[in-house]
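Thread: Newbie trying to understand structure tokens

Hi all, I'm a second-year student working on a class project, and my supervisor (Dr. K.) asked me to get a predicted structure for one chain before our next meeting. I've only ever worked with sequences, so writing a 3D structure as a token string is new to me. If someone could post the tokens and maybe explain what I'm looking at, I'd be very grateful. Here's the chain:
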Amino acid sequence: MADLEFFFDAVCPWAWITSRWVCEVQRLRDYDVEWRFISLAVLNENRVADWYTPEYRAGHLTGLYALRIADELRQTKGNGAVGNFYTVLGTEIHNNGRHVRTLTERENFFAAVLAAAGLDSALASEAD
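---
Reply by user tm_fold:
Sure, no problem. This is what the structure looks like when written as tokens:
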């Protein structure tokens, strides 16, 4: 059993910030982290607030597509692959400014992220 279960949606900036701290503690204390999923698209599927625009919803949907890939990685490559994928994906989204609300080349984007993480880029098709 892992020392810590960390739930994330790749598009959530708060999860991203916290995950970087978790990775630092993991490195310093040799903690075992299990990367788990939470979908903002699912949690907000019935939200009708004015601020929850179609663009905002599209960003959450991109997070759901990423979680589909992460789930395939978890099943076929294990927890470490999920962590690697999330690190590269989060860096692209949150540090390098890839705006997921306007992402039109989703499969190409995910394929590039997977390749950068040392994973099979063909898994990008799992998003759909």
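A couple of things are worth pointing out once you decode it. Helices lie at 13-29, 40-43, 54-76, 79-95, 106-116. The chain has five helices and two strands. Feel free to ask follow-ups in this thread.
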